[in-house]
Design goal:
The protein is of the alpha/beta class. It contains 14 helices and ten strands. A six-stranded mixed beta sheet has the order 1-2-10-7-8-9, sandwiched between helices. A four-stranded parallel beta sheet has the order 5-4-3-6, with helices on both faces. β7, α8 (167-178) and β8 (184-190) form a beta-alpha-beta unit. α2 (38-51) packs across α6.
Length: 315
């Protein structure tokens, strides 16, 4: 079950490189079919669900998994159901899940509660759970590591990645291991949702970066093993730092990503790194249009005559 995912662009970031003194590249995972890295794993997970004669697919989600699961379920002709925390999903992602025909359930609880419930649901019925606890998801997502090494010609020295449920860190490390290389993994969590940094679950995680608003990552142990084995680190960035990086990428690099993606660049700007650095931008900016509109400058009204247009354009 494929939508021709993968083979996403890897572009240089000259402005961020200048600011950090590193050779910085951006892996644009928002160029995947549903606008996020989730498609890499979902194509494998839903293909497996079909082969196992599942009646439906289900996931808990802060947004991107919901959109991807809904799209691939539609492609496979399976019923799709997604459970999202009520009022905690970005508009663009909710619209995607609904348009792909999924049954969207708004849970009056957190993502972590939603995940616990769908795990039990999958145990009771012939339903495929397609969250990152599904190992097929990791097998698909690891291909990002293969691509980066092939695109650069050599492995990067450092990989910077946002951390939410920690499946992506786990997957990239698996990919690098299979490629027989070991870049340092630098993971960044939002300060209000940083269980890996704190060393304990966060009961009520909160951050503007909704995609990483997770208090108890499903791949906690795997991710920490990856950071340790790669001689890497996991640290926090504030919402203000995330939004500053988000704005900088759009205005100076021409790259529009969602806020959670910008956590990778925010962390690099805050803590630094040496050598060739790849930042994984996990989702497209159109996933969360409201944040963009809140951050952007206002639209200029203008009368329909040349003088007015000239004054508006030239300032």
């Amino acid at each position: 079950m494929t939508l021709d995912e993968g083979d996403t662009p890897l572009v240089q970031a000259p402005h961020v490189s200048e600011l950090t003194g590193a050779d910085v590249w951006l892996k644009l995972e928002g160029a995947n079919p549903t606008g996020s890295f989730k498609d890499r794993g979902m194509t494998v997970a839903v293909s497996a669900a079909v082969s196992e004669a599942a009646e439906a697919v289900v996931c808990a989600s802060t947004g991107n998994t919901a959109a991807s699961a809904a799209a691939y379920a539609a492609r496979a002709g399976l019923r799709g159901a997604v459970i999202v925390p009520e009022g905690k999903i970005a508009t663009g992602k909710l619209a995607q899940a609904l348009m792909h025909g999924a049954r969207v359930v708004a849970l009056r609880g957190s993502f972590d509660e939603a995940l616990a419930l769908v795990r039990e649901l999958a145990r009771r019925h012939r339903i495929a759970l397609v969250n990152s606890v599904n190992d097929f998801r990791i097998e698909g997502q690891k291909t990002g590591a293969f691509e980066v090494c092939d695109q650069l010609g050599d492995p990067p020295d450092v990989l910077c990645v946002p951390v939410g449920n920690a499946g992506n860190v786990t997957a990239w490390w698996r990919g690098f291991q299979e490629y027989d290389t070991a870049p340092r993994l630098h993971g960044y969590q939002a300060a209000g949702a940083a269980p890996l940094v704190r060393g304990a679950p966060v009961e009520a995680p909160e951050t503007v970066a909704s995609a990483i608003r997770i208090g108890n990552p499903a791949r906690w142990e795997d991710a920490m093993n990856a950071f340790t084995a790669s001689r890497g680190e996991v640290r926090t960035v504030s919402d203000a730092e995330i939004l500053d990086a988000y704005t900088l990428l759009g205005a100076r690099e021409g790259v529009f990503c969602e806020p959670a993606s910008a956590a990778a660049v925010a962390g690099l700007l805050k803590y630094g790194a040496e050598g060739r650095v790849v930042c994984v931008l996990t989702g497209h900016g159109l996933k969360d249009p409201q944040t963009a509109m809140n951050r952007a400058s206002s639209v200029l009204p203008c009368e329909p005559d040349l003088d007015s247009v000239e004054a508006a354009v030239l300032g």
